[in-house]
Amino acid sequence: TELGVERRFVPESCPREVRPGDFVRYHYLGAFPDGTRFDSSYDRGSTFNVFVGKGQLIAGMDKALVGMCVNERRFVRIPPKLAYGSEGVPGVIPPNAVLHFDVLLIDLWNSEDEVQVQTYFKPERCPRTVQVSDFVRYHYNGTFLDGTLFDSSHNRMRTYDTYVGIGWLIPGMDQGLLGMCVGEKRIITIPPFLAYGEEGDGKEIPGQASLVFDVVLLDLHNPKDGVVIENQLVPESCERRSQTGDFLRYHYNGTLLDGTLFDSSYSRNHTYDTYVGRGYVIAGMDEGLLGVCTGEKRRIIIPPHLGYGEEGRGNIPGSAVLVFDIHVVDFHNPSDSVSITVNYKPSNCTVLSKKGDYLKYHYNASLLDGTLLDSTHSLGKTYNIVLGSGQVVVGMDMGLQDMCVGERRTVIIPPHLGYGEHGVEGEVPGSAVLVFDIELLELVSGLPEGYMFVWNGEVSPNLFEEIDQNHDGEVLLEEFSEYIKAQVDSGKGKLAPGFDFEMIVKNMFTNQDRDGNGKVTAEEFKLKDQEAKEEHDEL
After folding, report:
1. Which residues are registered as beta bridge partners of 528?
2. What is the pLDDT of residue 193?
3. Rg (CA), the chain
4. Does position 535 have pLDDT exceeding 80, yes or no?
5. 314 and 403 housed in the same domain
6. Quick one: which of 411, 287, 387, 406 has its CA closest to 346?
7. Percent of the chain having pLDDT more than 90?
8. In the list 111, 172, 207, 317, which could disulfide-bond 200, CB 3.0-4.6 Å?
9. Is residue 508 part of a domain?
10. Catalytic residues
């Protein structure tokens, strides 16, 4: 004769219990005391949805549901006076029938409910939160109040990307995302009147269903955003800043806004080399690389409309904000020439280096960021060259001009006057600006341009006869070489300094051997001034 309620399962967590006026969704099995079933929501494949305490249920069920938790299971015995009484339900419930109900509560809400937000992780650093009209990228698991999963972006392996607060989402999600930080995790519980309402979505979500979204925010921007630059390290000395048209070499780590690494020049052990302001890189990077110093480290945050847009690229998802932590190694402009800074010049500086001079010097070679490449000091010997003969890069030939013995200078050489785009494998990176700290130790004056040998005195009028030692009218290479060596050893003649003796002599002999037969005759033999005069007369 009395209402009987047996709580067969009570979940550990019960944040809310049914109260009169609440709307509930529940499954049930209805049976008579002998076990004969008269009704079942399971057979219909749909929960029973109803307000509690508003007379929409039999009195016994109205009472039995009060105090239930979602996922709680109750066995309810309802006497006839609290069920269908002496009338019953013709063809279904006989008069004065005791009814047994096995009830499982699936959902619970009230018309006065609001969106509930529970943040269970929030990053320490939160420079910006979601506002109306922002575009967000987030992952979520969507469940009903009983924990049943109805959707998951994780399963699709793709974030949900949308604007917030402009009607692209259900109203409850529009509200629930506001104020989130990138990296934040929160549970958003949405009553059905702020979700899919009485009809549901026609697919997975039934009518009148409360929805629970477990959300992690991965990305956030606004279409009005520009490039954001955060300076991390700016060298004290910054004589020059990058401008449009400059060529930069820099290292970078590229991440998404949640910290996911998508690319790194460090992993390739090679800088990224590009022109700035010429459209060779994404628009945001073109902007972010302007005004940097060599050695500077900065963070460049690029919204997707200045990055890879809605489509993304490779492992960069569409509509992603990009974060580049860059370190500028060097930069130059194609119009740059060699830069020379004199650090020390002796008081007696009258003899200056010129083309053809033989120079001995020490140097330390480094990149613009200070990375040491090479040093003659570590080798314990000087570097020796003939200036202007192509034995060093063009920029070094220029940097050693007009230098006196004892002078010290710093020579900065742009790559187009150094080792170019390709560099020297394993030694000098491609497109690298080179810095040489030089000290000139010795200078041997060279010969006039075009000369490999000069006389220190008068030239013998019988020069050919003197060279032709066996007087056969022909001079062989051996004879020629012995004669030149004797003149140099005796001080009567001088060879161009810095070159191999045999190479110079063979070169001189070849010039005289005009028919190329390996012998020089008196008719072929001419001095330099004689050759010039004859050519002039012919002209």
Report:
1. none
2. 97
3. 45
4. no
5. no
6. 406
7. 79
8. 207
9. yes
10. 28, 38-39, 58, 84, 101
